[in-house]
Amino acid sequence: MRKAYSISIQKMTRMLLATVVLASAFTLQAQNERKVNRQGIKSYEQGDFSEAEVKFRMAEDINQESFEADYNTGAALYKQEKYEESFKHYESLADKTEDPLAMAKVWHNIGNSLLESDKYAESIEAYKNSLRLNSSDQDSKYNLAYARQKLQEQQEQQQNQDQNQQNQDQNQQNQDQNQENQDQQDQENQDQQDQENQDQQDQENQDQQDQENQEQQEQENQEQQEQEQQEKAKPLEISREDAERMLDAIQQQEKDVKDKVDKKKAAAAKVKTEKDW
What we know:
The chain has helices at 2-45, 49-62, 67-79, 83-91, 100-116, 120-133, 138-233, 240-276. It is mainly alpha-helical. Among the domains are: 34-91, Tetratricopeptide repeat domain (Serine Threonine Protein Phosphatase 5, Tetratricopeptide repeat), CATH 1.25.40; 97-163, Tetratricopeptide repeat domain (Serine Threonine Protein Phosphatase 5, Tetratricopeptide repeat, Alpha Horseshoe). Mean pLDDT is 81; it is low at 1-26.
């Protein structure tokens, strides 16, 4: 029995020593974290926000569950105008505290980071979340009103930009339409001019063709007249038989004429003789 008791005492002693060592380690870790965190706060108050960020991140590394170190890192980032990083850092703190007042500050700073990023609608929701946790926070109330005003200005500016863009688009559309109409009119005028030029060229070609035809016709007439004149001036060429027949015909014609004349003379003489009787 004593031996067993003795073993139990030894085990209890070792457990107690382990607990003391662990507590000492936690105490030392907490002391180191607070020391580094205080160094960061000192740099922050001196305006050296970059150095403050370094110290606060060191404190985070010492104790990754430290709400204070993470919160202060977000503040140092915000002061360096690293608003996107600051927002993400504050956003990660939601699971590190159940203190409503602490979370109200977190949401307030989230609102500030979004506000500086011109994300006014999102910042309004962040300030609302802060006021739900701490309705008496005047800074959140003021920033909420300011964010609403900036959102309204942003919306009005966007509307003006949209209207200006719409007007520019309409003007551009009108210009394009006018240019299209002008191009179409120019093309129609060009087509008309081309057609007139073509008609004129066709008429000139036709006139030239008519002139050539007229000249050709006159030339043919001239040649025909010359040929006719040459035909008239050319002596007739007849055969000997034709010439003899023609001569016989002429002689016969002359004989017939002479016979007629003689008959008329004879008749006239007979009539005169009868009167003398």
